[in-house]
Amino acid sequence: MLPQLEREFLQADLAQVHALLRDMSPADDPIEHFQFSQRASALESRLAELATELISAPAGVAMFFGGKPVVGSQGIKATFSTRAVNCFQKLVSQRFAADEQGPLSRHGRVPMADDTQLLVTDVVRGSFGFVLQAQGDATESGTSLKSVVDEVADTLSKLAAAEETLSDEAASVLDDRQLGTLREFFKLLDDEGASLRLVEGERDFELDQRAIGRARGRVEALTIEDRTATLDGLIVGWTQYSRRFELLTPEQAVIQGEIAPQVVEAVTQEGRNPMYQRVSIECKVREVRARGRSPRLRYTLTAIHPESAA
Asked: Which of 82, 160, 228, 266 is most deeply packed, by most CB within 10 A?
């Protein structure tokens, strides 16, 4: 069972046991009071163990569906559930590849998709859904699959949020390939009249049909264009740990963005610090447009050269 779900069940059980203990006295029924006290201690002990297990647990997520595709507690439409789980898996594989190699092409095989396959390990009821878990957290590239699943869950939550700023933040990290899968996912949920509850890490949120319709409208209104650019200027911000940079251009504009992993590695191996150096940088520029909104630009630095080499 997913540790987060086990914790939820144990907490509910413990609350019930505590309620029973409050309503009884050791003097009235010492044996029953002792048994319930032991039960409470066992539950509290297991909850303490789970707190440690959650830190080291591999990537995992529980997806609960409600609405029209679910037939009471009997089951869920096979075609709907297969497509929904497949969309989530595609989002995980695409985000992993984009984090590793940058924006994906619109077509073709997703790189390293085999590294990111989740397993359906359990069926959960209440609503009706599935538990998806990784076999381990480390991938061949070293990227944490747990962090990638967390990014996907965060994107789904923010795209459906009432606050436009959260939606804009989520859209800024997408590429056209991921956007296509998100359109497919939210269209499926919306057309089928489904709701979604997602449990992942410390995250537990529910998207009702209104939120799903809002997310669908947003992703269908988005367009994303990726291009390359060469920029000259002075490095005024360089943080290798968070992989962020700031470039002051000759026009006195400050360009902020992300540093590609291979650039951080190269700079570290060379033992140089680009801070306050005049440079020429190569970068990928992602432009995100939504109807009626100003475009948002995201920069990823892919190469850096001293100004004299430009």
From this structure: 160
